[in-house]
Design goal:
The structure holds two protein chains of two kinds. By secondary structure, chain A is an alpha+beta fold. Chain A has two domains: about 5-45, no CATH class; about 65-135, Alpha-Beta Plaits (2-Layer Sandwich), CATH 3.30.70. In chain A, about 40% of the residues lie in helices and about 25% in strands. In chain A, helix 2 packs across helix 3 (about 35-45). By secondary structure, chain B is α+β, with helices and mostly antiparallel strands. Chain B has two domains: about 10-50; about 70-150, 2-Layer Sandwich (Alpha-Beta Plaits), CATH 3.30.70. In chain B, about 35% of the residues lie in helices and about 25% in strands. Chain B is built from five helices and five strands, in the order αααββαββαβ. Chain B has helices spanning about 10-20, 30-35, 40-50, 85-95, 125-140, and strands spanning about 55-65, 70-80, 100-105, 115-120, 145-155. In chain B, helix 2 (about 30-35) crosses helix 3 (about 40-50). Chain B starts with 8 loop residues before the first helix and ends in a 7-residue tail after the last strand. Classes of the chains: A alpha+beta, B alpha+beta. At the A-B interface, helix 1, helix 2, helix 3, strand 1 and helix 4 of A face helix 2, helix 3, strand 1, helix 4 and strand 3 of B.
Amino acid sequence: MNTLDRKIINLLQKGFPLSEQPYLEVAEQLGIEESELIHRLADLLEKKTLSRFGPMYDAQKLGGAFSLVAINVPEEEYDRVTEIVNSFSEVAHNYRRDHDLNMWFVLATDTPEKIHAVNSQIEKMTGLKVYNMPKLDEYYIGLNLPV
Amino acid sequence: MENKIVLDELDRKIVELTQSGLPLVSRPYDDISEQLGIDPSEVISRMKRMLDSGVIRRIAAVPNHYALGYKANGMTVWDVPDDKVNELGQKVGQLVFVSHCYHRPRFLPEWPYNLFAMVHAHNRDDARLLVDKIAEVIGSDDRGHDILFSTQILKKTGLRFNQ
């Protein structure tokens, strides 16, 4: 990752314009050609330096539901349980964490009922207790990592 | 808890077409409007409305924090009195290094924590310093806390909404 990449990442984390030629606008701010910006972005996404680029939707405001779920998975069953959990398209991401509750995943579904349906299916398939921790209140969401 | 915003079919189609990312072409919103057979300005105005109402949190690049050297991804969790969780959540959420801050249910006895704050740091020691800073903000209402570091990404796809 070179200096230009860093500048692009720092700038685009803050936002991207809703205008006819948004790449041109951003490229001008960076003092580069529009085509170069597009090329660099494609490359950063391809190399997975950026995990996403575009609008971030609020699942709840779309009428959907969202929850954070944890499981205490015995070490010898970790691979099997990972495979089961990840097989659900409703699982948006899943992290291993160092705690007794060692698997933490986010569910996104179109209705709140489906959160419970997916959780019960996961409990049934894994034989493990699922800790459903939907947000009760949200205080802040925003990520800005200077590079 | 939160207001539901009414989206029509066209809004939902825009969501569907953009949820995995914006087209990397000079006129990305034209690209979307062509697929929908509508005017580009219509796509922009509808997305602007979704941005204003919070349906779109923001349009931006999301870095893969691991790739950027933020290797210590810590979920800090706090047991604070229920009647103070909102006040404390607001304060913790305002700290610059906190990326998400939520009130979530406890599962007693094994999970006493009701306030979650995500922190990202270059290493675990730095992350622990951030925990100390949060502890200062919470003060005597801190009845116990922990930090859960992620040790592996098992799955990471963007959110997908089926229409």
